[in-house]
Amino acid sequence: MFDMERKTGILSLRRLGAHGRLLCRDGQIVRAELQSDDSHVTRRGVEAVTAMLTWSDGRFDFIPSAIETADEIGVRTTHLLMEAARQADEAARPQREVS
Fold first, then answer.
1. In the chain, which residue ranges form alpha helices assigned H by DSSP?
2. Mean pLDDT for the chain overall
3. CA 80 from chain center: how many Å?
4. What does the pLDDT read at residue 75?
5. Nearest residue to 13 (alpha-carbon basis) of 29, 30, 35
6. What is the phi/psi pair of residue 40, to 5°?
7. Which of the 8 DSSP states describes residue 19?
8. Pairing label, strands 18-25, 42-44
9. pLDDT score, position 96
10. 40: burial class by Cβ within 10 Å (0-12, 13-18, 19+)?
11. 69 vs 88, higher pLDDT
């Protein structure tokens, strides 16, 4: 929806144990951060987006605002979704044994 409607602002996501922020400009994610509540591990960029796309529950808020930061992601939102789906598919496949 952000891509189709060309939204600009901050999407804050929260679930038990973690919270993240996606900065969007004209529908494209330009910066992403994911913070673990307990271990203070921070993921950034594509890794953070991919991790948040695996969430099946949580809350979100979107605050429209100007985003002046440089594009740290460097790929279109559609590509992020496709890559996350590919990684989820690979993770769901049984691992072949190496002989």
1. 2-5, 45-52, 77-92
2. 86
3. 8
4. 87
5. 35
6. 60, 25
7. E
8. unpaired
9. 56
10. exposed
11. 69
Please state whether beta strands 59-64 and 42-44 pair in parallel, antiparallel, or not at all (unpaired). unpaired
Within 8 A by CB and 6+ apart from 71, the residues are 25, 28, 30, 31
DSSP H helices, 6-76, are 45-52
Backbone angles phi, psi at 59, to 5 degrees: -125, 155
**E strand or H helix at 56:** none
User: Residues 23-59: pLDDT tens digits?
Assistant: 999 999 999 999 988 877 788 988 888 888 888 899 9
Here the tokens at position 38 are 């307990």
Q: Quick one: tokens of 44?
A: 């950034």
pTM: 0.81
